[in-house]
Amino acid sequence: MVFEQERGKSVLLGYKIDSKPVVDSNRPEQLQKLNIIVNMPEAAPAGKWESIEGNDEMRRRLQNRQNIIITDDNMGVEWQ
What we know:
Elements: H1 5-14, E1 16-17, E2 20-21, H2 28-38, H3 40-43, H4 55-62, H5 75-78
Antiparallel strand pairs: 1-2
């Protein structure tokens, strides 16, 4: 899975709640936090974003497992 940073940023900037933007693009501190979020796979200090696993790490962790097709019905098994 590839996270497209610019697309992700665009989507988050487009989110609204009660017709108001979730991220106020006129507030530099909000844009700074948004940039941290969309750049987290590359920019995060080691261990900071433990819930994100990169492609190489996942392949190493699962290299000796049987190949299975991932569906909505078996995701719980994949992420124990």
